[in-house]
Amino acid sequence: MRLAIFSLLASFLLFTSCATVQVKSDYDTNAIFSEYSSFGFYKNGIDKVEISDLDKKRILRAIDGHLIGKGMVKSNTPDLLVSFSTKAEKNVQVNQNYGYGLGWGWWNPFWFGNNFYNTYETVDGILVIDLIDAKKNELIWQGVGKAPLVDGPQAKTERINEIVNEVLAKYPPELEK
Fold first, then answer.
1. Contact 146, 155 (CB under 8 A)
2. H/E element, 66
3. Secondary structure of the chain: what % helix, strand, coil (to 5)?
4. In the list 44, 82, 83, 124, which could disulfide-bond 130, CB 3.0-4.6 Å?
């Protein structure tokens, strides 16, 4: 019994640790999400985002496709305005390794241990998607996705689609009853 529980827990931890996109979301609990059926992009907000125009297009296409896939309609007079922002975050990883060899050590006269460290940097991209009630001009939902950045047009498109899909999977929120 213990072995089954342990292996189930180990499988769960392995599965969740392999996820490449970390997602968080928050929302206005007073918003009635079933009333929002159309969307448009908030150009003023998106124009301020300091990334390449190619990456902006990738993000816009991914959001557009995902919301249409959820049954929403793109409109010039939308219920929801969609905006986004981005940020890059540098991470430094340090791994400690142990080297062993023959010689005089503190615990054995024939073995010694020496430590050495490997360091490497990764860069995570953070995408924040804001959904704004167009009539009230109030933020009603926000999703944040974080994942390692990649290079190359195809890889960027796939990663952006992955992040957008993971973030917008949280919309509309399932309200607790």
1. no
2. helix 53-69
3. 30, 40, 30
4. 83
Length of the chain: 177
Q: What is the mean pLDDT of residues 13-32?
A: 76
> Distance between the two ends of the chain, CA-based, in angstroms?
35
Give 94's pLDDT tier (boundaries 50, 70, 90): confident
Task: Specify the DSSP element, H or E, that contains 81.
Answer: strand 80-102
41/60 Cα distance (integer angstroms) = 8
Render pLDDT for 139-170 as a digit per residue (tens, 0 to 9): 999 999 999 999 999 999 999 999 999 999 99
Q: Tell how many helices (H) and how many strands (E) occur in the chain.
A: 4, 6
Phi and psi at residue 165, in whole multiples of 5°? -65, -40
Tokens of 139: 């933020």
Contacts of 130 (CB under 8 A, 6+ apart): 42, 45, 82, 83, 84, 85, 139, 141, 142
Give Cα 136 to chain centroid, integer Å: 28
pLDDT reported for residue 6: 35
DSSP letter at 46 equals H
Query: In this structure, what token pair is assigned to residue 55?
Result: 């990456």
